[in-house]
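for the recovery benchmark. tokens below, seq after
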């Protein structure tokens, strides 16, 4: 499984020359209820990207995870380290800039923490424009949502420290799961995050008492193995999808707004009618 941290510099130079896609897990260090470690999202991101790098037909290498993200909503339960959006963007910008200096030209931000979603998507747009290289962002949970839903039995998709994440930890690192505390980890009530209006909701509001959303009691290591396969395969397919890796339009180039007709292949008369 090609992982940046396991390779020597000459091997990474060879991967850069081969135009390898760099997978960057963007995760968190935050509370995951009384039964899962705070490293959960980072552990999952690292495992998914390492596995995807080993599956993809396209040359690929996985970075160590960005281990802290936007997690301030978890502070009521403790155990959480968080950045703010400007700090997270600065970290991602530094990674992109370093990759370009090392000769890499394609970056995939693989987000495994829901609180990072909007910030990572915006970073992909801005980094692509700044460094003139393809940068994409996605959550493997969203890429493989249908496949994961068929594996789960107590919920329809990933939530937080739930059937899905607990299953993955039982598969990847069972020694880190406090199995004797799973039964007490279910939250009741809580405010659901809306789909129309954006507002701040802490996990004390969304998942009272335990900080868990979903039902970890249904978790098994066998489900975890199947979920890892679904997530890694989804990321590998994205790496192999040439349509995702087109060179970005240089939208910030001086005078870019004057050459639309040229870009579209239009003649002078057609351009006048626009």
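predicted aa per position
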């Amino acid at each position: 499984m090609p992982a940046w941290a396991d390779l020597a510099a000459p091997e990474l130079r060879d991967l850069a020359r081969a135009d390898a896609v760099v997978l960057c897990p963007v995760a968190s260090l935050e509370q995951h209820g009384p039964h899962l470690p705070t490293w959960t999202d980072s552990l999952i991101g690292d495992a998914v990207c390492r596995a995807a790098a080993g599956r993809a037909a396209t040359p690929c290498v996985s970075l160590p995870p960005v281990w802290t993200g936007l997690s301030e909503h978890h502070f009521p339960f403790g155990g959480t380290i968080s950045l703010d959006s400007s700090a997270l963007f600065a970290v991602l910008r530094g990674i992109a800039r370093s990759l370009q200096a090392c000769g890499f030209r394609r970056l995939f931000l693989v987000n495994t923490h829901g609180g990072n979603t909007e910030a990572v998507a915006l970073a992909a747009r801005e980094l692509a424009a700044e460094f003139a290289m393809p940068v994409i962002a996605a959550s493997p949970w969203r890429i493989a949502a249908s496949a994961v839903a068929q594996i789960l039995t107590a919920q329809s998709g990933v939530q937080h420290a739930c059937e899905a994440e607990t299953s993955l930890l039982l598969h990847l690192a069972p020694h880190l799961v406090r199995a004797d505390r799973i039964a007490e980890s279910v939250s009741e009530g809580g405010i659901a995050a809306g789909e129309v209006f954006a507002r701040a909701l802490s996990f004390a509001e969304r998942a009272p008492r335990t900080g868990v959303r979903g039902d970890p009691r249904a978790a098994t290591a066998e489900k975890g193995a199947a979920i890892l396969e679904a997530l890694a395969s989804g990321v590998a397919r994205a790496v192999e999808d040439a349509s995702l890796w087109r060179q970005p339009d240089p939208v910030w180039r001086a005078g870019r707004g004057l050459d639309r007709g040229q870009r579209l292949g239009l003649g002078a008369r057609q351009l006048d009618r626009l």
